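Two proteins follow. First one:
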Amino acid sequence: MRRSPADTDRSARVISRRGLFLGGLQLGFAGLLIGRMRFMQVDQADEYRMLADENRISIELLPPARGLIFDRKGVLLAGNEQNYRIVMAREGVGDPAEVINRLSRLVRLDPSETADALKEMQRRSPFVRVSVADRVSWEEVAKVAVNAPALPGVSPEVGLSRIYPLDSDFAHIVGYVGRVSDYDLARIDDQDPLLRQPRFQIGKTGVEAKMERPLRGKAGVKQVEQNAAGRVMRELSRKEGEAGANVQLTINHALQNYVQARLAGESAAAVVMDTVTGDILAIGSAPTFDPNKFVHGISTADYKALNEDPYRPLYNKSASGLYPPGSTFKMVTALAALEAGVIDTEETVTCRGYTELHNRKFHCWKRAGHGKTNLIKSLRESCDVYYYELAQRAGVERISAMGRILGLGEKHDVPISSVATGLMPTKSWKLDSGKGEWVVGDSLNASIGQGFVLASPLQLAVMTARIASGTAIEPRLVRSIDGIETPIKGNVPLQGISPENLTAVRRGMYEVVNGQRGTAGRSKIVAEGLRMAGKTGTSQVRNITKAERARGVTRNADLPWERRDHALFVGYAPHDNPRIAVSVVVEHGGGGSTVAAPIARDILLQAHYDDLPPLTAYPANQRGTIRSQQNNLELREPQAPSEGRARL
């Protein structure tokens, strides 16, 4: 149907109005775009040119919070505290030395620290910020912020710093952290970029070093916008890192403190183990040191004092120290001979005070001899001649093999620095080490824990725990990581030792402490159900000549300290239901019965009572002395569990 002329005119007018409206909108929008472009390109040209030419987007790592370390009860051993520091990047600064000079008028700066910072800035990328002042106060941070225009490239920041609340008690166990050095970067195979961060801290010794990776955590990242002067203009984005894992140790902090206090004044070590789980309840080394001094760099004077101390406070004697075990080794020789069937528990050996072999005399400690001696008497009175005879019958190979069954000559898997392997010598070892052919005299010396035999206090504690429990228990220092329990290892019967022979040796160890003429008789426990079994040891550190024997062996008290014998004791309690084992070594302490045994007895009692033991646990004639000793011990107040243990 054809449209009328009127309809056509009306449609044309409608289309024209719509076209004009749409055209107007398009012109208006184009005008806005042109206006905005002019504003950006003309009015704000300088600002955008600066953003394009001079500002930079920088990606920075966010160091994670280091994992915490707790004792078995949840008491904090290693934590983090807030730390203010001043950092500086050299890009756009001009003369960094001049800026640091201006900064020194506001903040106390260590000249050696600032010199190191300037060197670090030259080595690093211009955008990398280097710490020029650490542990500054809030007031100093405020001064820097107020004077920011005069300090290009300088900015304050907040970080975390390691702190050890129980300081010296755990120095050899927990260890300490320190700044990553070039030596660290060269020796460790770790590509974590955190290690390249200026003054980033890693574990240097102890658990801090051995568990560095889980304790360190994972870094976060942030994007920041910096201007030409290197100053951060704004933060564009942030992704937080992952905090390090919390580690709970098996150590009892109160017992550890008691051990350190009881060893005070000596150059000594002690290890306390749970004979059922293998948990190390305390592992002390004396003297000790304050690890907090190492966190930010120890002074030359303090380090020199520690390094030159003849008692070697930096050395972990409990795990790294190696000593001839002396008579504490006699259980090993006895078990080797019993298992080989070359002697039984009742057969006697006559001790005349020495054994003669190829025109050479091997002496017993008792000059007049012990007479007819069986296994029990040999342990109770520590007869050397009895063991000289066993060595000739059993041979060093069997003795060394038995030592390894009991945990000697073995590097135990505990996260402590420089854990020693010790030495269970054999004929092939001596030949391979260039010391010549093995001779029978070497076996005689080895049978009483002298000669080439070496063991650490940790190994002696393991040996004692295995004899007491009859299991191949392994020492455990880490109880859990982020709440996940670490497994108990070795809680299975010992292979290669019959229960009957173990029972016989334990009976001899009981007689050492509780029997008439037992070498540790003065260190007995009289508390019902807590009787102790053990073995004394005295290891020589010098040769005694024929001439000296003829005129009388010089007493330890009359010798210089460094030439005196080491004093040792190993033991466990209760004797009829062993739960705790202990080893004690006192360097150049003299006799094991007079020096090491009383310390071990006190430590065992403290471990059982988890507090100062009652005087009634001691023989009546010693209670006055024990009361005085307890009053003089410098003990900490027991610590309450930390709130941070919630993650355990």
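Second one, unrelated to the first:
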Amino acid sequence: MKLRYSICFLIPALMSCAAMAQEGVVYTTDGTRTFSLTKNVMTGEKSDNIRSAIVLKPEQTYQTIDGFGFAITYSSCYNLLKMSQDDRKQLLVRTFSPSEGYGVSYVRISIGCNDFSSTEYSLCDEKGPQEDLLRHFRLYTDETDYVIPILKEILAINPDLKIIAAPWTCPRWMKIESLNNTAAHYSWTDGHLSPSYYKAYADYFVKFIEAMRNEGIHIHAVSPQNEPLNPGNCASLYMPWNEEAGFVKRMATAFKQAGLSTKIYLFDHNYNYDGKESEQQYPAKIYQLYEGTDFEGKELVAGAAYHNYGGSSDELNVIHDLYPDKELIFTEASIGTWNNGRNLDSSLADCMVNIGLHTMNKHCIGAIVWNFMLDMQRGPNLDGGCQTCYGAIDIANDYKSYTYNSHYYVICHLSAVVKPGACRIATEGWWYEGVTYSAFRNADGSMAVVFYNSNSKELKVNIADGENRYNQILLPPRAAVSVLMNTNQGDGVRPLGADAGATTAPVYYTLNGVRTPAPTRPGIYICQGRKEMKN
């Protein structure tokens, strides 16, 4: 298969002496919350030691990063709208603002209901006449009164926010028992999409995208079905790979004919394909079926999405190696009572390594976790859905005080230093058991490294550019550390928000090393796995 590339132009800029004094920043969170996205400034002092050095290789690049984010469900929006306007704005700015916050840049929403909606519903519960099957299509109050208002507030803070959407079920009147038994399956759960409704359901997606556009909201991407191999969710549709393959052709053609550029990500389910032998390598089976064929809108089938509720992230490497020109994105993980998700000391390691870093090191262009915010009773939620899930943020019953859980830290640690359009880059040199990291070069020439140290002792590491220029960093025990180098960060050591750590960060880091400059001539770096040009 032919590998496609895009070009990232990194243009060096002249820097003033004042700017050179700001070498970069470091964010730290540990399991004891002694550090909570605590921000320190790197000062550019000369180190006398370059042992234990990670050498950055910006000329050797991998995927281009779209961003990191949260699911904006009805439940999240319900809780956010219970907050005062000022408190909500402060939180959203801290989370989503590229200039005043961590710069979270991606969200996921549902098309119709999910298990954190007010009720089960689709966007066209009543079937229209044969000549206009979608006559009764409409956005429900979950969208109009909750999700859309919150999305508009976030977009006002970060206009470049990307949004991916997925349905939990099609309208019930579109369901049949199976392709071999075409009797109606009028239920919120299980059932198969009738091939006789492929066109109508493709048009349903178009109507949703256009309805959101009319609200000023651009849908960047969709998947045809959330968890297509899970028939038992509170709202679900069973869609094996061969059925999704047939439907996606109609969907892509409908998008193209409507003038939509919305990307389509296949699958959107677990690494292990829920243990079903016939569904192994689900997206690769669809790609293979499409090989040697052409259909209108085929280029919109951008890649595949994955969750981590079963199997190993090594499956990302398998699919990438088979189809390296197709994108991979991680779209859902949750914390809850089953994994002690409110205990940061136990959950930060697993989430930071498996959701934050393994997905990046195995070619994902982004990572999105489940609910942005839930209340202390893990809701509101629907019967039949997840009754044991926690949000990335727990909000107290006063709708004013709240606590960050591990998912919030994972997404913000990545977003704060790895910006949309960054390229993941290669490294060589230092390695220590129990430390996981990933390195990136941003489009502005700054470089980022995100670490998790799972050891019970602090470690010292030098980040080098290969020319004896390096910054020396301490990794506290059981801590996430995000480093952004070669930037002008303004006024230095101040936390982002009242609960973001000490008001002035402790003297903890030995922040040594001279500035790693941009190339002395315009650099051209190849970012793999993209079809569009990035300047």
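SUMMARY FIELD: The two ends are 26 Å apart (CA to CA). The chain has a mean pLDDT of 86.
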